[in-house]
Write a structure and sequence with these properties.
By secondary structure, this protein is mainly alpha-helical. The protein has one domain: Rossmann fold (3-Layer(aba) Sandwich). Helix content is 64%, strand content 4%. The protein is built from five helices and two strands. Strands 1-2 form a two-stranded parallel sheet. Helix 2 links the parallel strand 1 and strand 2. It is flat. 13% of the residues are buried.
């Protein structure tokens, strides 16, 4: 969620392929091969050169692919599942 929220604010994501990050970022931003400090620095430096139009397309990805209503519904369903599972183990 934090990467999606940052993208909504126009931040250029600099991520690795860990977890669901590629699903969230898609072809927006930069995907670095490893969490090496030098590679991270290069990625951030490159991200700082993105134009306002590029930042808007990053924001649009989240608005289109992960609208707030969908995120809310999925989070509520996940919380309900955890509650139900916990009740089953009491």
């Amino acid at each position: 969620m934090s990467v999606a929220e940052a993208m909504l604010a126009g931040c250029v994501p600099v991520t690795t392929k860990a977890g669901a990050l590629p699903e969230v970022t898609g072809d927006c931003g930069l995907c670095i091969a490893a969490a090496d400090p030098n590679e991270i620095a290069r990625g951030i430096k490159h991200a700082l050169s993105y134009t306002d139009a590029s930042r808007q397309s990053i924001r649009n990805r989240i608005l289109e692919q992960f609208p707030l209503a969908n995120r809310r519904t999925q989070l509520q369903e996940l919380i309900q599942q955890v509650i139900n599972d916990a009740r089953g183990h009491v």
